[in-house]
Structures are given as C-alpha cells and as structure tokens.
Amino acid sequence: MLTRKVWSGRGAELIHLLDAISTNQTYFLREAEHFNYLRAEILPRWQQSDDRGPKHFWSAGCSSGEEPYTLAMVLSEFYSLAKLRGKVKISASDINSKVLEHARQGIYPESRLEKIPPDWLKKYFQKGINRWAGSVRVKAEIRQLVDFFRLNLMEPFPFRQPLDIIFCRNVMIYFDKPTQEKLVQRLSQILKPGGYLFLGHSESLAGVAHPLTYLKPSIYQK
Predict the structure, then answer these.
(1) Bridge-partner residues for 219, per DSSP?
(2) φ/ψ (deg, to 5) at 63
(3) Can you give the CATH number for the domain in which 216 is found?
(4) 130 CB-near residues (< 8 Å, 6+ apart)
(5) Are 177 and 69 in contact (CB under 8 A)?
(6) Least CB-packed of 81, 100, 160, 205 within 10 Å?
(7) Can you give the residue range of the structural domain that contains 201?
(8) Would 113 be classed as within a structural domain?
(9) Which residues are paired to 111 by β-bridges?
(10) Which phi and psi angles does 155 have, rounded to 5°?
C-alpha cells in the first residue's frame, strides 16, 4: 500500500485544487517519433562517444507515468535490462499528487497499451486476472528504474547535476508566452552541453527566446 505525505492548512487546499484542475490524459508510446529518435540517433551516438558515463533523464509533467515507463522500456531494449542499473537514471515529476500515486503503482487499463509492441507486453507487463481483468501492471524491474516526485515547474528544480535529456511534452501549451520563455530558459540551464529537450508535437519554441538549437519538430539540443 502506498503512503502519502500529509499536507495541512492552506498547502493542502492548494494541492487538492491542483489535483482537480490538472490534465492527465496519456498512453504508452505517445508521440512515438521521439522515442524512435532517441533509439536510432541519440543512444547509438552516445555508445560510440567517449562519454559513456551514467545518463540522467527527466520526464517533467509525467502525468500517470506512461512516459517515463516507456522511456525505461526503450532504454532496456537498447542496453538490456540487466545493464541499465548504474547506466541510467530516470526522474519523473508532476504537479498532481494523485496521478503520481497511480504512476508508482504502475497499474493501467489495457486500452493505454494499444501502441505497445506485442513482445513488450510479455516482457514488461503483468496481465491482471479476476477483479484486475482488463488491467496490466508494469513489472517491478521497470518500475524500479523510475523515481517519481511531486514538483511544480515554477519551483526550483531539485537536481544537483546537469541532465542529459528532458522530456517536457504537452506541458507548455498551458502556459502563456512569458511563462514558456522562463521555463525553457530554466530547463536549458540544467541541461548538459549537447543535452536534448523534447517538447510535445503540438508545441514549438517559435516566438520564445532560448539558447537551444532546433533539430527536428519539437526536438532541441543545447
């Protein structure tokens, strides 16, 4: 059973309000072109470079966890699950505390997996039976690769070291231009030189001042 931090007073009221109004509609392998680019372009480049140290990924605005779990599966396919520990770190944050509880449990309706390859279903998911029929659970070895935590993106970021890749997809569409610009500047600051920022396909940095290089639609590099 999951535990939850107890909030009190005005802080609790704010948390409940944010939980109620935040949008959390997603599924596994959403906007698959990003994961294809990671698998076909970035990971082989890293493998061939001299910098083979641990890589740190952040799913900012992770909702109920499908995005960071998909990322963990893609990485597992490339490196093999046995080699992932110590090689990658996946952080995942959201403003909504309720969906984070859901994400940590890793239980989803089968409808969220329509784009998942059949062999991934067997490799990375457990099929529910009896009262859990129609649901699946992400296997423990994948769940353990993701560190979930609550964060408002307007708050200070908790990372002590620069990151290699940030997925901040379908988040900025809810912000006005000045807020978008402020957020992108802050995300850029915590990327390593050569690091990548992925936005949602419906998002772009047009009209937003930033120090990043455009690579492909919704993909930028520091």
Answers:
(1) 198, 216
(2) 55, -135
(3) 3.40.50.150
(4) none
(5) no
(6) 160
(7) 27-105+139-221
(8) no
(9) none
(10) -85, 165
Domain count, the chain: 1
Q: What's the one-letter identity of residue 80? A: S
Q: In what order do the strands lie in the sheet with 88-94?
A: 146-150, 88-94, 55-60, 163-167, 191-198, 219-221, 213-216
Strands (E), 19-102: 55-60, 88-94
Residue 20 located in a structural domain:
no
Of 82, 81, 79, 102, nearest in space to 92 by CA: 102
Cβ partners under 8 Å of residue 154, min gap 6: 179, 183
How do the pLDDT tens digits run along the chain, 222 residues long? 233 333 334 444 433 444 443 445 677 999 999 999 999 999 999 988 877 789 999 999 999 999 999 999 999 999 888 888 888 999 999 999 999 999 999 999 999 999 999 999 999 999 998 888 889 999 999 999 999 999 999 999 999 999 999 999 999 988 999 999 999 999 999 999 999 999 999 898 988 999 999 999 999 999
Q: Which residue has the tokens 């408002």?
A: 152
Quote the CA–CA distance of 128 and 125 in Å, as a whole number. Answer: 9
Query: Which residue, among 125, 127, 121, has the nearest Cα to 141 in the 3D structure?
Result: 125
Query: Residue 8 domain-assigned?
Result: no
Give helix then strand counts, H and E, for the chain: 9, 10
Non-local (6+) Cβ contacts of 35 within 8 A are 29, 70, 71, 74
Residue 218 backbone zone (phi > 0: left; psi -120 to 50: alpha; other: beta): left
**Could you tell me the two tokens for 94?**
């959201």
